Each structure stands twice: as C-alpha cells, then as structure tokens.
Amino acid sequence: MYRxxxxxxRAKLAxxxxxxxxxxxxxxxxxxxxxxxxxxxxxxARILEGQRLCLLKQVGFxxxxxxxxxxxxxxxxxxxxxxxx
Length: 85
Hints:
The chain has one domain. By secondary structure, the chain is an all-alpha fold. The longest helix is centred in the middle third of the chain and has 14 residues. It is globular. The two termini are 15 Å apart.
C-alpha cells in the first residue's frame, strides 16, 4: 500500500546517502529493493547483488538447501511469486 513520504523521510532521501539504505532503515524493504534495481547502471553489480541478498534475507527469503546455495535471482523470483506477480 502506498503511503506519502513523511517530511523526515523526504529529508533523509535528499541527503547524499543511498536511497536503498534510507528505505531499508525505515522498514520500506520493497522500496529499498527497487532502489537497488534502479541504481544498477551506476554501481558495481557485485555490490548490488549483496545488497539485494541482505534485503531479501531480512524479510525471510534467501534460505538455501544445505550444500546448495541459492542465487539472488532465485530469491527475487521467489519474492515475485510470493507477491503474485
């Protein structure tokens, strides 16, 4: 559900900090994950993959089968399936 950003959130997003980090701190993990995709053209792909993995683990995705690690793409596909997309 969309909610209008508070003045405090707007100020944090206007700072030089990563919008993904700001959204994650505020508990807006869907926005934080979207921010990592938006910044994909300007940041190192390995860093973005690590950020996505951390965000997905925070909300309960990313568990892997022993001996078989899951990729970030697998987690994102699982998330999209969960969201009904």
